[in-house]
Amino acid sequence: MKLLVFEYICGGGLAGQDLPSTLAAEGRLMLQAVLDDLSRLAEIDVTVLVDARLALPVSARMACVTVTATDDYRHILSQQLAHCDVFLPIAPESDGVLHQLGKLPSTLGKPALLSPTATIALCGDKLATLQQLARHGVVVAETRNLTPEMPWPQVVIKPIDGAGCQGSGLITDPDAYRSHCQTLEPAQWIVQPWLSGQAMSLSCLFQQGQGWLLSVNRQHVVIEQGRFRLDGCDVNCVPRHDYNHLVARIAQAMPGLWGYVGIDLIESDIENSPANYPVLEINPRLTTSYVGIYQATGINVIEQMLLMRDGVSPKLAKAGGSPVRVTVEGRAPW
To answer: Residue 109: inside a domain, yes or no?
Structure first.
């Protein structure tokens, strides 16, 4: 089998633009975890796009395709997809990047290890996603499009299609809120009340209305000058069984979810049951927590997605293990 891997930052998504060292380090963290998982599998030849400004260690079964400042990575992807069997994109939902990458292999009749594009588009609209979940009885954070006046004493504003902490901020002063909103397009931003509690995430696999929880993760989020930053996460730090009911309800609410999906939520200070912890967003792609899953649980996520592509349910007998700390520099990967 020939598998094409494309990580947006390291793979040339910013070719011809500035490539901040922090973003490159974060993208490399995600990409290296994928390549490590693939190295554990037999009979898979890997092709990976690499920005010319970066370097990757090359293994015997990996071919690197360089993307220069004058190249269009989409054109190179199309060329390489013609010679590969499966496509694995790693990219943010922001600006429709993941949605466009999801559409690319379908034009060539090639499968992607990714949710269908309609589901990616839904997840790229945080407000619509939470409304869909709420209609099916999932507890979600109250969310609105940006309003002229601050609707709660403390609010979080974020891009409607943002990834991770990208663009998210905490505002506690009504005058600062009004001033900030004047610089933003209301339809492209959402506002939520500040919720006290621990930021958590769930790493899951989904297929045809079913969900399998891989790990529960504690996120280390800091606030600097009103901006959120993810410094890392503790992967597999909480017993999974408490969250299985929530994952099942999300699977029923969004049956189009497929493959690896990350779920962000708040472990509320006032709720005892994980089923009532408010969901913040659904990420239909590999997330930061994925980096620690193999070490923490023994589960090879890429292997499981390849099985699922062939219609086989995930085999998670190894699941268990112990917590693993994943540390990132500066802003977090998606």
So the answer is: yes
Q: In which domain, by residue range, is 241 found?
A: 123-139+195-327
Q: Which residue has the tokens 């600062």?
A: 176
Residue 333 lies in a domain: no
pLDDT digit string, tens, across residues 98-139: 999 999 998 889 999 999 999 999 999 999 999 999 999 999
Q: Which has the minimum average pLDDT: 20-34, 252-266, 300-314?
A: 20-34
